[in-house]
UniProtKB/TrEMBL annotation:
Residues 1-25 are annotated as: Disordered. It comes from the Bacteria. Gene3D superfamilies: predicted glycosyltransferase like domains. Residues 13-22 have a biased composition (Basic and acidic residues). This is PilZ domain-containing protein. InterPro entries: PilZ_domain. It comes from Sphingomonas ginkgonis. Residues 40-120 form the PilZ domain.
């Protein structure tokens, strides 16, 4: 049995037959941290939007993006370019100052990023609803 200190997961060895023919048994236990923030973990409400923008990783030319939701603390955008989790990016919305953010997740042509400095609520674009 292997277990890491401070976790509730482990690995129990397999019971291999002496002739090397598999038949083994492996048990893995895992525990995922309980979400204590309720049904919505975000710090601020996301507003659905549909905004053509530019997203530029620091040190690059940038690419087109379509922002699909935004809040004081972050945004989600559809992108054609690949971005790495942890990348620092500039989000440039039409008629607004650029905003610095850190990519927190990517999946299937989308990314989520957290603003380095939260945006004032009155500077957010109107909701698409």
């Amino acid at each position: 049995m292997f277990a890491a200190r401070g976790t509730d997961w482990g690995f129990e060895g397999d019971d291999r037959r002496s002739d090397g023919e598999g038949g083994g048994r492996v048990m893995i236990r895992a525990r995922i941290a309980e979400d204590r923030g309720g049904p919505e973990r975000r710090r601020s409400e996301r507003l659905p939007v549909d905004i053509e923008a530019k997203l530029r990783e620091l040190g690059t030319a940038g690419s087109e993006a379509r922002v699909v939701n935004i809040s004081e603390t972050g945004f989600m955008a559809e992108v054609d370019e690949d971005f790495e989790v942890g990348a620092r990016v500039w989000l440039m919305l039409p008629g607004r100052e650029r905003a610095n953010a850190v990519v927190r997740w990517t999946a299937a042509g989308k990314l989520g990023a957290e603003f380095t400095d939260p945006l004032p609520a009155d500077s957010l674009p109107p909701s698409a609803d």
